[in-house]
Amino acid sequence: MAPAPSSTSSAITLNINGEKHHLSIDHRTTLLDALRERLDLTGTKKGCDQGQCGACTVLVDQRRVVSCLSLAVAAEGREITTIEGVADGEHLHPVQQAFLDLDGYQCGYCTPGQICSAIAVIEEHAAGWPSAVTDDVGPEAGPPPLTPDEIRERMSGNLCRCGAYVSIVRAVAHAAEAHAEDRTAATKEAAA
Amino acid sequence: MKEFGYQRARDVTGAVALLAADPDARYLGGGTNLVDLMKTGVERPARLVDVRELPLDRIEPTADGGLRIGATVTNSDLAAHPEVRRRYPALTQAVLAGASGQLRNMATVGGNLLQRTRCGYFTDAAGPCNKRNPGSGCPAVAGEHHNHAVLGASGHCVAVHPSDMGVALTAFDAVVSYESADGPGERPITDLYLPVGDTPHRETALPPGALITHVSLPAAPVAARSRYRKVRERASFAFAIGSVAAALDIEDGRIREARLALGAVASRPWRARAAEAVLTGAPADGATFAAAADAELAAAEPLPDNGYKVPLMRNLVVAVLTELAGRDAR
Questions:
Q1: Best residue in B78, B100, B234 to probe A by mutation, most A CBs within 10 Å?
Q2: Which of A38, A157, B214, B225 is such that its CA lies 20 to 30 A from the CA of A68?
Q3: Which residues of chain A lie closer than 8 angstroms to B46, CB-CB?
């Protein structure tokens, strides 16, 4: 005999950009809809709503995911970062600054997703993750150079229908270089 | 979307008990396929049992020199794992060839194996489909089937299994462990998926409500020299129209051992045993590779609009084996 139907909504707490939000939520609500419709965090954009365009990309426990295929109820207890939370106060995140400096957008609709994705791409690459265009995936090979081909492959989950890809690739490359220099400087400082 | 209950499973036994008690419940892993299908009404579960916090997120070496992969390991973590990259490089390549960075961070190993076909008739809840609604017919046979099966299909269903990961796991003889209401069990991945026949709605040999807990890779020295290559309609983030996972062990110009599996050609990842039989013991040259591909594809039964897959797969097999042989010779 099937058990009595369980409740179809829950009271949950979401940790978003370091702030706790309490809400009662229908289980059908995606993380994307919770952010936009319930919490007024409209920086995260709804594009295809089926995991194909990347406009809704956010970071969950520092990993990039598509919020349109994430259920809000399943995100409880995780650390969620949206585009509203990537800057350090008034200081833009280096990836945000690179997109501004190098015109990494046209209409801007896909940009929050592109930026959240690029922040994670740079971390994944720094951690040594190979990609589908990495020639040697062996663990001794080390991170491949972050060439335009590597950036295009790693960013392929983010579509830009304006076609601003040329500038997006430049912006990601620029931010990745700055990130690598920061890491080198930090390592030297720690050694000194 | 239909309303549903939601629970987080704390342990494997509890998760299996929840599914056993409710035939309309489903396990929720990364949700990249299930949530999408729920939005369109193809899946209408009454309850989701979230298994992502189960202690199944480790990749561990086994005593026999293989690896034991937990079912909730994400695609990203599987692909990035140093021992996977060292011992089974084609598996890393296969995983990285699938989906996008965001989806690989969400998707899990267990879910990848149990994901559903992307056949457009299956995903359109309004129309007929024998897999979704048994006995309603298969519009793909006379309809849109340019990316459908050429091996092992039937007139009842010509859909292909969409996994890249599964193709490499099939080449390497992975064994799938599960827990069910009747206790634990395991099956070689080559016996996980049922023949299509006239029951395309029955996809796997797992007991009802079973939860995949691990996927084990036996030791396979041949896999250290392996390669996955995928052909698709755009450069990235698309399902395969054909793919190959292959490994070769060559000594003095002869093939000591060969592994070959094909993707996007059948309702399951297709282990190419006829090709392997031709390869084993034969000279590692182009003539052997072509004969091996032909031996496997002799059974192909293309439809009017997917005949291109036969020469495509032949060329792909020959190209990947040639590349592996060349690499070995260096």
A1: B100
A2: B214
A3: 2, 5
**pLDDT confidence of residue A192:** 67
Angle separating helix axes B309-329 and B286-297, nearest 10 degrees: 150
Residue of chain B whose alpha carbon sits nearest to that of A10: B6
Phi, psi of B299 (to 5 degrees): -85, 0
Structure token digits, residue A78: 């995780």
The predicted model gives A86-113 an average pLDDT of: 97
* Residues in a beta bridge with B262: B244, B270
Pick from A53, A52, A32: nearest CA to A43 = A32
Name residues whose C-beta falls within 8 Å of residue A186's C-beta, 6 or more positions apart in sequence.
none
Compute the CA torsion angle A167, A169, A173, A174 (nearest 10 deg): 10
CA distances from B167 to A185, B56, B103 (A): 43, 22, 18
CA A119, CA A87: separation in Å to the nearest integer? 11
**What region, left, alpha or beta, does residue A102 occupy, with left being phi > 0 and alpha being psi -120 to 50 degrees?**
alpha
Q: How many CA atoms lie within 13 A of B120 on its CB side?
A: 9
B226 neighbors B89 (Cβ within 8 angstroms): yes
Residues B179 and B156: their CA atoms lie apart, in Å, by: 31
Q: How confident is the model at residue B330 (pLDDT cuts 50, 70, 90)?
A: very low
Task: Give the C-alpha distances (Å, rounded to integers) separating B76 from B56, B92, B98, B151, B170.
Answer: 15, 9, 10, 30, 19
Chain A residues close to B82, C-beta within 8 Å: 139
User: Helices in chain B by DSSP H: which ranges?
Assistant: 12-21, 34-39, 75-80, 82-87, 89-97, 101-106, 109-114, 165-171, 273-279, 286-297, 309-329
**Which residues have CB under 8 Å from B262's CB, separation 6+?**
B151, B167, B242, B243, B244, B269, B270, B272, B296, B313, B317
- Residue found under tokens 């390549």: B93
Please check whether residue B285 is in contact with residue B252, taking contact to mean a CB–CB distance below 8 angstroms. Answer: no
Over residues B229-267, the pLDDT tens digits come to 999 999 999 999 999 999 999 999 999 999 999 999 999
Q: Cα separation of B205 and B191, whole Å?
A: 7
End-to-end CA, chain A: 69
Q: What is the DSSP string of B282-330?
A: SBSSHHHHHHHHHHHHTT----TT-TTHHHHHHHHHHHHHHHHHHHHH-
Sign of the Cα pseudo-torsion (B25, B29, B31, B33, in order): negative
Residues of B with Cβ-Cβ distance to A5 under 8 angstroms: 5, 46-47
How far is the C-alpha of A4 from the C-alpha of A183, rounded, in Å?
55
Each residue's pLDDT tens digit, B41-99: 999 999 999 999 999 999 999 999 999 999 999 999 999 999 999 999 999 999 999 99
Using DSSP's 3-state secondary structure scheme, residue B14 falls into helix
Task: Write down the pLDDT at residue A1.
Answer: 45
